[in-house]
Amino acid sequence: xxxxxxxxxxxxxxxxxxxxxxxxxxxxxxxxxxxxxxxxxxxxxxxxxxxxxxxxxxxxxxxxxxxxxxxxxxxxxxxxxxxxxxxxxxxxxxxxxxxxxxxxxxxxxxxxxxxxxxxxxxxxxxxxxxxxxxxxxxxxxxxxxxxxxxxxxxxxxxxxxxxxxxxxxxxxxxxxxxxxxxxxxxxxxxxxxxxxxxxxxxxxxxxxxxxxxxxxxxxxxxxxxxxxxxxxxxxxxxxx
Length: 240
Ligand SMILES: C[S@@+](CC[C@H](N)C(=O)[O-])C[C@H]1O[C@@H](n2cnc3c(N)ncnc32)[C@H](O)[C@@H]1O
Fold this sequence. Notes:
- By secondary structure, the chain is of the alpha/beta class.
- The protein has a single domain (58-235), classed as Rossmann fold (3-Layer(aba) Sandwich), CATH 3.40.50.150.
- Helix content is 42%, strand content 18%.
- A 7-stranded mixed sheet has the order 3-2-1-4-5-7-6, with helices on both faces.
- The protein is globular, with a radius of gyration of 19 Å.
- Bound molecules: S-adenosylmethionine (SAM).
- S-adenosylmethionine binds next to helix 5.
């Protein structure tokens, strides 16, 4: 039996502190994350293991929290559709379109979304296809695969496509914590060798977003991860 109230509450305080530090990451083991991964039950074991790992190394749930609960959401470079599906599962009032250059990734995303009305996927190069009029655009680990010569044009294209109250959510990686940058570079070299790697320093990307016209709020999300995650919440309208 614990002797005092302090002993009773101490473990939960320690757990809360650990979660704040990102040492414990309960979300990838949550019912929501299991429901998300269950969509991929027809994918091969290798794919499912990869997607499970992806949920553990990238803060999908934090990115998803920044996306409005309703409206047209465009997920650029959606990969296997994890974020698109999470956004669609969380709110039926969202209409999510995932776009990726890889036919194989789009096919896997579509197979996982079969029968669900508020999510769709299309193949295309984000630097070439028209974006329509989404209420929110997200890019999760896309920008560092776009050549520097195309990055500003892509950000400007997002700005043009969004309505006055639209938002752009970018989750990308930074160069500032050197060992995390090197780890990320090695990861991409092994995993995404077919894709170019054009990482920007967060102050440079923030300045570029400002030049394009966005109001930017930057949040570093790398605590507890070996990857230098940074989130950019970009609004067209000045925030009140
Ligand atoms: C690191 S993966 C991120 C995938 C997904 N957003 C996620 O977080 O799991 C980068 C993705 O961007 C896609 N991509 C790279 N260049 C692209 C382009 N020009 N147009 C569309 N997709 C592109 C790749 O095919 C890949 O699926």
